[in-house]
Amino acid sequence: MRYIRYAFLATLGVILVSVALANRGAVTLSLLPEALADFTGLSYSIDLPLFVVIFGGIVAGLLIGFVWEWMREYKHRATASRKSREVHDLTRQLKREKRRADTAEQKDEVLALLDEAS
What we know:
- The chain is mainly alpha-helical.
- Helix content is 81%, strand content 8%.
- It has 4 helices and 2 strands.
- Strands 1-2 form a two-stranded antiparallel sheet.
């Protein structure tokens, strides 16, 4: 199984390198469309190789997806945490009750011995 993982990672690496080599041309990324940039005065642009834009888009999509899932699953994590605390509290309460029952049982034995002695 380990070799299959290494083969997959090597194949993925070769594919990523070939995409990067095939898309080395520079592209201009602008913050806003030209007409809107002239209107607002925010004309920011940068020249980057195309493969950086492609890989950056993939990374940004993954990060957005991870954050989205983390926020979506919050209610499930909160419920699990609440149930875990509840189990912990009930376990402590059960141990206390068992100790109480043991001490009460010991007292009953002592009273029985005293009754037998008299």
